[in-house]
Structures are given as C-alpha cells and as structure tokens.
Amino acid sequence: MNRSITHEQYLQKLKRQKQLIRLTQWLLCIFFFFLWEIAARKKWIDPFIFSSPYRILQTLITMIKNKTLFMHIGITLWETIIGFTLGTLLGTGIAILLWVSPFLSKVFEPYLVILNSLPKTALAPILIVWLGNNMTSIIVTALSISVIVTIMTVLNGFLEVEEEKIKLIRTFGGTKKHVFSKVVLPASVPTIINALKVNIGLCLVGVIIGEFLVSKAGLGYLIVYGSQIFKLDWVMMSILILGIVAALLYQSIVWIEKRFLKWRE
Structure pTM? Predict the structure, then answer.
C-alpha cells in the first residue's frame, strides 16, 4: 500500500514537472515575440530589416487569403517527405547489404567516410546541372544529404548488437537470415528511429538548399525571392514557418516511435 502511494506521488511529481517545463517553454516563446515587437516599435532594431511579429502576422494573413502560402508550404513538405522516404529506404537497404557482406563493408567504409565529410551544399549545383532545373534535383539534393548518414547510423547499430545473442541463434542452427530477423533488426529499432529523427531535419535542410538554387515555389523560394526584392517580412515569416514545420515533422517521428513501442508491449 505504501509503495503504491509513493509511486503515485512520484508520478504526480513527474506530471507537474512536465507541465512546468511546458509552461516555461511557452512563456519564453511569448516573451521573445513580445520583446521583438517592442524593440521594433521603439526602433531599438530596424523593423525594415528585422521585421516584427505584427508585420509577419499581417503578411501571413495576406498570403493565406490569396491562397499562396499553403501552396509554398505544401511543395516544401512534399519534397521533404519524398526525400526522407527515399533516403530512409535506400540508406537502410544499403546498410543491410553492408552488414550481410563484411567484405563490401570494409571496401566501402573509406568512401562512406569521405562522402559523409563532404559539404553537401557544394554538391547541389552539380546535381542541378546534371538533373536540370526541376523538382527532381531538389529531392536528390535532400537525398544526398540524408542517405549517407542513414547508412552509417543504421550500420553501426547493426554492428553493435550483442555478439552473445548472435552466437545463441547460430548455436541452434540459425542462418544469417534468422540472425538478422530475430536479433539484429529488433535490437536496432531504436537506432533506426534515431536515424529517422536526424533524417527528417537533414532532408528539410536539403530541400531548402535546393529551393534556394532552382525552385520557383516553396519556402526556400520565398526566402530567396523575398530577400532579392527586399520583402523581408516574407523572409522572416518563411523562417518561422520552417521552424514550425521542422518541429511538427520531428514530433511526427516521435509519435510513430511511441506507437511502435506501445505496439511492442
């Protein structure tokens, strides 16, 4: 009985702590925008360069009314989801292949390290020349940023699985297929989910880089075009929306993780 009461008190304490953290986060956010607005109105900062929350809100309402904002957000989201899906599937598939063949893993290891260390923004113009001024080049740019990270993260997760568990399966006559499906893959699920969390942000970065260079629509296009014609309200609004989109995409992966863990239980 005492243990139950103590446990309940502990859960209540955790709940209050989470509520306090969430409240503090919202208060910091509100304070930031309030201070930003005051600074712009008092001319502590140049409102033409830094904009202000009120001007951004006006721009947001205008673009919602003329139905252009959702088009730009939709294009960026679509490109990100395509790049994320392809990067995850391709990266995981290659990681599985390298795990199956230690020879190939050792052969390609230095190339993966080199490709991972290359600045991917330098590859974007080359990809655009090869693939043309279209959405495909933007998606491939996002893919080039995420796929190498996925391969290395997932492969390391496969290789870090406890050797004793693998030996146990082999002792009972299990093949490499059994080892992978029964031990390696289930044990690597947290690693794969962490790779997804990293990937979704990297894909969004890749899409924005591609949109900077070739797109005629999307949030990256709004940022570049707005800076070119000195509509910095567009730029600041697009940056804030990008932050919200990145947070929502990350939370979607967290939601998938929670659903998966609940299903496993």
Answer: 0.82
